[in-house]
Amino acid sequence: xxxxxxxxxxxxxxxxxxxxxxxxxxxxxxxxxxxxxxxxxxxxxxxxxxxxxxxxxxxxxxxxxxxxxxxxxxxxxxxxxxxxxxxxxxxxxxxxxxxxxxxxxxxxxxxxxxxxxxxxxxxxxxxxxxxxxxxxxxxxxxxxxxxxxxxxxxxxxxxxxxxxxxxxxxxxxxxxxxxxxxxxxxxxxxxxxxxxxxxxxxxxxxxxxxxxxxxxxxxxxxxxxxxxxxxxxxxxxxxxxx
Length: 242
Known about the structure:
Layout: H1 2-30, H2 34-37, H3 41-44, E1 47-51, E2 54-58, H4 64-74, E3 79-80, E4 83-85, E5 88-90, E6 99-103, H5 109-122, E7 132-137, E8 143-146, E9 164-171, E10 183-185, E11 190-192, E12 199-203, E13 217-219, E14 229-237
Antiparallel strand pairs: 1-2, 2-12, 3-6, 4-5, 6-7, 7-14, 8-13, 9-12, 9-14, 10-11, 10-13
């Protein structure tokens, strides 16, 4: 009887150790995502829709007032969007036909607040954040599937500020689903529709500069007249942006 009880005790202790080990391993595996999931409501409200690549969504990342403020700042500065071509930025309306406007870092209190929010989320200094890029799409305008990270073979000068590791794409207004304008990740068969204040976060690569080709993404064309889509791109490097 004593031997039987001893064996049961040993079995229970081994089971407890195994469960504890599994729990610790699980926590360890999530450590690289910890900055996305903790500290305040903006972070708690993110939900994962993919872990390969990492894609997270927060439907209330910006307030209505912040969305309107960004649109108002950008409205007078829009010009045809450009794409990278080696060392140059060029207009290529076949691949990207939207309009863009840049907002300088720390432009005002609202922009500083948003930059603070983003830097806390990914756990990097605000100096790694590029100037915000606001984009505007009207009927027929789109951005065909592309990568946010730079090609190390052709974009050498751009990499002086490091690789684009993190992207926040934040919608500034809502577009009905049947009106187009969705963001698509074709390699993962993921489609995300614009909703005012909704942030889509995805990780383009890793701190060592390696990139993730599964982050291929695009902006589908607007299908209706009198419909305008607004969004803001926030890109974060693995080095200080200069």
